[in-house]
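worker-3 :: picked NifU family protein
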Amino acid sequence: MSAEGLERQTRNYMSNNVPQIQQHGGNFEVRDVDEAAGTATVAIGGACSGCGIAPMTMKAIERQLPESVDGLDDVEVVRSSGPRAAVMPSKTDEMEDMDEYEDYSPPF
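worker-3 :: tokens ->
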């Protein structure tokens, strides 16, 4: 499979299985796909950045995406920068460290 195929599968997974991101005013982009390494970087931003469950969503994507896309072994989810940057980055940083988020399983 080509990197484009892996990227397309990653994008399709995000569009089809994580619709809450877009329904809630957030956005995502597939930033980088390395076919040989089986890795991808996905950035989320917009309303996701200030959302209380964004850290949980990020962890869930990192866990579920490799299980759903053939050839993908590791996913890193990062926050978008620039115009899509965090609304409240300090709050989001604090949330990522909260123990409550370790076992959260979002509804997707």
